Amino acid sequence: REAACRDALPAGGPWEAALFGPVLQRADCLQHCLGQRLGSPPSAHRASRANRRDFQRREPYNYLQVAFFQLKKLDQKLSAAHTFFVANPQHLQMRDDIKKYQRMAGVKSDNFRDLEPTPHWEAYEAGVQHYNADEYLQAVVRLEESLKDALLALEECRALCEGPWEDEEEEEEEMQPGLYEAISAHYVQVLKCRQQCVLEIATKPGRISATEDFIPSHLDLLHFAYDQVGNQALAAECAASYLVFYPTDEQMLKKMKQYRVELGEDTAVTAREDIQHYVQRSLMEKKLIYYAVEHLGGTFNDPDLWTPDELIPESLKEKHRPPSPADALASLKHVRVSLHFFTQAGGWCLRATSPRWLLAMCAFFSPGSVPFEGVAVTLDSQQMNGTHRVVFDGVLTEAECKDLLRLTKAAGEAGDGIRARRSPHTPHERFEGLTVGKAMQLAQSGDVDWRDARLLLQASEKSGKIIESYFSPARKLHVSFTHLVCRTAVDEEQEGRMDLSHPVHADNCLLDPEGQECWREPPAYVYRDYSGILYLNDDFQGGGLFFTEMDTVTVTAEVHPKCGRLVAFSSGKENPHGVWAVRRGRRCAVALWYTHSREHAEQEQLKAEELIEQRDVKQDQTDGEECQRTDGSSRSCSDPPPVANSGARSASWRHKPGSERMQQPKKLRTRDEF
């Protein structure tokens, strides 16, 4: 193969001059133009990837709206806030702020202007609105405008792809590539960037996913709209342009035959030149990318549904070809399904006449038992008007709740433990938070009691065991994050309050109430599978949890806090939830998230377990030394000390007989007075 390469492309051959001559001329041209326009070396004006990302997310407008507020320039503040919110509709604080601004006296809808409008999206949505209203004359005007602006935006995006090489892996120690490898890698990166531009323009600001077939969909809509207004010539042109993307579309081919008959066989019907150029150029780039992936390695996520199958190399097709049903079944390790069954009058979740496999499924997927004495199910999913929701009582005793509340107070007095600050969700409450890792650090330094810090860890693990046994007995749950949180009402700021303590959201996806969808994509915590809130007190007003429909408005269930109550639910779009405003007092609870993914298990939790184990070993050694020094005792050192009153705490941590093992797992084993 090396000899063949040398014969086909000898180093320093004529092909090099033919290739690099135009490249060098273009580099000279670009450098001259940039220097003339910018007045200094172009490299001085290149923004970092982080800065470019911030501007794409419109982050500067978040700072601008604060600055305009300080300058008392209300109109500019509203425009800046709205511009930021358009691109960040999941930003809970800004969403609440916008609602407040809308209720302010003298504020009109015209005050909320998008300072970075996207012309092709404005025209597209207007065109689709006219189209759906059967206003086809207006529709073709706006859709043509949208298509023109979209292709222009596409060219601007492609031009930005020709920037410096960006090493995504940033592995400095890796061997530097040679001339041809470096050129190939950079060029393929540029090609992939250009291909992704169609997704860039097809993604509406504030949305995560792109509209599929954005360019072809314009032509499809235009074809029908022109046909409805009687302009068969332009309808045929749009149909021919659509066939450039999908040449075998049967419906469109039938329409083309009809148009040829209506317009006459002598009338030439061809696709638009800009569309032909767009498709031909895109196919040429895809061919180069697929060659690079096949021979040089790497991956390529083709953004287009219309890419011809024959363009993809056979070796890549084989690699990504779905397995046969037999192979797929043989390779399965875990099966994850969601089935919904209903309790019958006789207590069965299915009738006795149901197929046996359904009865077996029903038994397997029915909620499991609770593996701790004293813990009871208070409300199940049916009583809470939803799915995968449950309320447990008795998870903590009154004494344990007081100990955890004492932990929050001691951590606050330590100065760097819990810090009261404005809530990230509302200015009307103060927010305090303590993680397991921070609690252990404070315990090591002597600022909080070791037993209280350990109790926080145990409460998290115990809640996880309860949730796992009830919802997921066949799959292990790992702690993803534990957060002891207190929300305190600011007394002087409660009058006229209209907001929530925590706006409605889902825990592992980005909720889109208008689209009735929840996007399971970053920045959401997509790996979280189950959520829980373990309440510590009820001596406050408000602060209850509520569930809603996807519209975030229709309330389906409410949970009132009390000591030891655990509300648990799956973290997805089936359980949008929020927290009512805390109007008086201080509400404390342990927020809990769990995941099936071992890779996303909380590292602080694991380190905390190691610290406790090390401390226990050290304590056992100390106890052994003290035991050897004492005399006159009939008790052996391994015997537990006599206890006059075991107290309420130990009962809540005791497993039911036969619920799991006779002995608790080490990390849940009670020690001292636990």
Overview of this protein structure:
By secondary structure, the chain is an alpha+beta fold. The chain has 4 domains: 57-116, no CATH class; 120-167 and 179-316, no CATH class; 339-368, no CATH class; 376-609, q2cbj1_9rhob like domain (Jelly Rolls, Sandwich), CATH 2.60.120. It is 46% helix and 12% strand. An 8-stranded antiparallel sheet has the order 1-2-13-9-16-5-4-3. A 4-stranded antiparallel sheet has the order 6-14-11-12, with no helix packed on it. A hairpin with a 6-residue loop joins β11 (545-548) and β12 (555-559). α5 (74-87) packs antiparallel against α6, α9 crosses α13 (273-296) and α18 (436-444) packs antiparallel against α19 (450-471). The chain starts with a helix and ends in a 22-residue tail after the last helix.
Outline:
Keywords: Coiled coil, Dioxygenase, Endoplasmic reticulum, Glycoprotein, Iron, Metal-binding, Oxidoreductase, Repeat, Signal, TPR repeat, Vitamin C. With 674 residues, the protein is of the alpha+beta class.
Question: Helix and strand layout, with pairings?
Answer:
Blueprint: H1 2-8, H2 14-38, H3 49-56, H4 59-70, H5 74-87, H6 92-103, H7 119-132, H8 136-160, H9 179-201, H10 214-228, H11 232-245, H12 250-263, H13 273-296, H14 314-320, H15 325-331, H16 356-365, E1 376-379, E2 389-393, H17 398-413, E3 421-422, E4 429-435, H18 436-444, H19 450-471, E5 478-489, E6 502-505, E7 510-512, E8 517-519, E9 530-535, E10 541-542, E11 545-548, E12 555-559, E13 566-570, E14 577-579, E15 582-584, E16 586-595, H20 603-629, H21 647-652
Antiparallel strand pairs: 1-2, 2-13, 3-4, 4-5, 5-16, 6-14, 7-8, 9-13, 9-16, 10-15, 11-12, 11-14
Helix pairs in contact: 4-5, 5-6, 7-8, 8-9, 8-10, 9-13, 10-11, 11-12, 17-19, 18-19
